[in-house]
Amino acid sequence: MRNIISLDSNNNDSRAKFLVHCNDMLRLIDPNGHASFESDKWVIPFTSTNTRANNLYATLDFSDFNNKTLKFKSSIRIEFEVGEFINLTIIDFAKWLFLQQRHSYSLDYRSVWHLEMLIILFAYLQENNIKSLEESKLEDFFSLSLTHDFVDGSFVRRLSSPAYGSRFKTFNLSSITRILRLHSVEGVVTNIHEEDLNKEFNSACLSQMDMTLADYKVGGTFDFLTLDVGKHYVDYCASFFEQHIVFATALRSSVIELGFDLEEKGNQSKWDALFTENKDQLSNTIVTKYNEIVAKYHAFNVDKLNQIILELKLDETRFDSHEFVRSLMYARFYDDQLKKREYILAEYAANINSDKTGFKIDFTLQEFDEYCDNVLYEETIDLKGANALLDEYLELFRKSTNANMGSFFRDVEAAGVTALVSYTGWRASEFGFPESSLKSAVNKEISDAVYSPFRFYIKWISPKTNGETLLEREITLSTAILVKHLSTFTAANENGFALTSATFGETTLIENHIKSMVARHWQRFPENYKTFLELDELKILMAKDCDLVETKRKEYLLGKYDFNSAVVESLNELKDKLRKDNQILELISRNYNVDQKHLRFKETIRRYVNGELDDVAVQIIESRLSQEALEYMRINNGDISNSDVKVIVDELREGIFYATPHALRHVWAEAVLRRYKGNIGKFIRANFKHIDERFFMAYLRGKEAKAIMQVAKRTTINHIVRSRIQSLNSERRHYAGLFDRFINKAVAITHVKTHEEYEELANKVSNDRVVDIKVNPWNTCVLRKGTFDHAKCSEEGMPQRHKAEPSLCLGCINGDIEEGNFNGIVVYIKPDVEACRNPNLPAFIKSVHLVTVRLALKRIQELGKNYDVSPYQKYIDFLNETIEIAVNS
């Protein structure tokens, strides 16, 4: 008969028996008895055959398992010997499980990594409120392990994926499953077949890193690019493209027409002839070609659009204003047959004018064109202007591209391609389409057809998921225009691609080309990004006595960048990190010409070992490489294999941001979740404002996309919570809603004061309280534990968030509102406003709509409460008038 022991039974003999059993296992890895099972920290010496170092210790600290963030069960029963059972606390279970897996191996540093994965497993179970890791949760668990660490009680997003050897090699879930079954343990990890486990692990690798599990095992790594970093790179590339595309297109077609080879290098006299002897002919050709396209290209330039909206006295705060102007421009310059411009203007005017919010459309189509022409055609050039531009760009070519215009053209192409990849979130293999695959149709959705009369699609293949089957995927109007501009720019080669002038033997090679285009500007970006340069300038001005001109410039920059704000502080930190990262990337890519041989990083290693490397490079190597790696290089005198060189390079690059198409997929996912907020970057915001549920659901059809979105949700939740808490002392908080009230109350109750206490609170709310988020134009639903019954959309205790609408969300306990939601509130409560102002509706019908209008008024007043003069005052007055009309009618 089996003897069941419990720690709660105070059976000292049984406890002693269990301890002897565990200490026997511990002695196998600690024969000299430095550690005891009952201690929470084991410091165990070991030797290594790979290094000459002595006095090596592995420190195994189990104290984290005492934290409630890891206590997914109150206790766990195990059969530690045949017929002998015992109930263990989580920390004792962790020690026992560790010994069961590691006691037959020699101890080394990897034992610490194994412990880290146990922590991640237990934290995952606790966070998801589950007792066991089921097969259905495997991909999510692996995705989390690839993208996050568990630090100080919370999951923290990594900058790069961990090496397979340092995280997963010694942590075998199949082995854990066998141990648990052998010892009659219920839960923790279910009995999962190794083939199924590897299948889910492979899916996680593909979705999060765009590589197979096999590639990951042999040393593949991936650098993640979050929205808070990626938005700046997208802004830089999109700005570069907008700045240069008109002249680059005119110059490229002119040079080709005159018979010059774009790619020719080294023949300086030929280029001098083009810019001197043939300058008049070239300038005349450029004038014609430039003026043919400048108006229709600038019609979609973000800054020009904003200028036109101001000229037309439209409401620049409403996203539909931009979409309406873009639509009229598209019909004018690209397709006047799909839907007549007269109808577009008439429908939008009728919609806006019925609002009576202070903005009224009373211009005709002819007046619209005149307004636009005043802005768009001021950029045309004459012969003198063309000569000036040629001189300017020739100087640019000579400085940065060794008089090779082809390199400049690739820069423009790369900038446009990078913007396009970020706007779509597609894989690199999916951009090999011709311009003919771009389709357009009239928008038949009543809700948004008024201001967005067109829909656009790319009909092309997705090789990794659908082979050669053509798929029709929707894109935004601004993305469609970007495709057209790139196609016009690259059209002369007639290679069949809309996005590139390059030629390939096979269309599948587009994937590698897109990867190189996306990475092309990365190392220039930190040195040339306007925001970073202005921060540099402001830092200099703040540290000196300024003259009158400098003082005005300083005041302008201080108005733009509040040096005391967390936002500017994080911008400066990012700037400094990216520039330091550049030093590492430049060292890794350093070239040497020795005895007519072209040598790379292997030569850098040899020079380091022999003391021939410069001090900056030495400092980088010694600060970023582990002692094991440094010792290994010295022992082998720098003569190491190519595979070892790759491992060292990967270690150097760990934690460095880098731009890839797949990294931009992660950026896209985060941008979708934050698209109604104001901090997603100028160009992403301009393109994403009209991404609605259709785009989102279509993207989520793929399994990989769902896994990426899960990670993006976690990152977005952390961003929302931290931004609320960090801004509590800000003079201008632009937040409203009951979730914001919950954050204020949580801070007051917990009496947080220090930075560490704020961080702890943010972690607690993000990981312990928030269950999920759903973004709506009028608010973000931040669903929290304990609020299900109280959610306004709840039915029988379960929130029905697919039924979200302003009448429910604006007064909901889970509603979170930022300044970016103001436009959505205005648009989506319009039916309620119209009902309240309608003199023909009876009071009992108006009363329902009146509730929504009052809720909207309350939330908008909260948004503007920290301003001396609320920017929403005009609309607040309008809503007050609306309420008065409804009450008195």
3D structure, described in words:
The protein is an alpha+beta fold and 889 residues long. It is built from 40 helices and 20 strands. The strands form 8 sheets. The protein has a 4-stranded antiparallel β-sheet. A hairpin with a 4-residue loop joins β16 (770-775) and β17. The longest helix has 31 residues, at 227-257.
Strand order of the largest sheet: 15-20-17-16
Low-confidence spans: pLDDT under 50, at least 5 residues?
A: 1-10
Number of helices: 40
* Rg from Cα: 31 Å
- Can you give the helix content as a percent range? 55-70%
Number of strands: 20
What would you call the structural class? Answer: alpha+beta
The shape is globular
Biggest β-sheet description: 4 strands, antiparallel
User: Mean of the pLDDT scores?
Assistant: 88
**Spatial separation of the terminal alpha carbons:** 84 Å
Strand content: 5-15%
Short description:
The protein has 40 helices and 20 strands.
Please render the helix and strand layout as text:
Blueprint: E1 3-4, H1 12-29, E2 41-46, E3 56-61, E4 76-81, E5 84-88, H2 90-102, H3 110-127, E6 132-133, H4 138-147, E7 148-151, E8 154-157, H5 164-167, H6 173-182, E9 188-189, H7 194-209, H8 213-217, H9 227-257, H10 268-277, H11 279-298, H12 302-311, H13 319-333, H14 341-353, H15 365-376, H16 383-400, H17 405-424, E10 438-442, H18 446-449, E11 454-461, H19 463-466, E12 470-475, H20 477-490, H21 510-519, H22 525-528, H23 530-542, H24 548-560, H25 566-588, E13 592-594, E14 597-599, H26 601-609, H27 615-624, H28 627-635, H29 642-653, H30 661-673, H31 682-688, H32 693-699, H33 703-726, E15 735-736, H34 738-750, H35 755-769, E16 770-775, E17 780-784, E18 794-795, E19 798-799, H36 806-809, E20 815-818, H37 822-828, H38 830-837, H39 843-863, H40 873-888
Parallel strand pairs: 1-5, 6-9
Antiparallel strand pairs: 2-3, 4-5, 7-8, 10-11, 11-12, 13-14, 15-20, 16-17, 17-20, 18-19
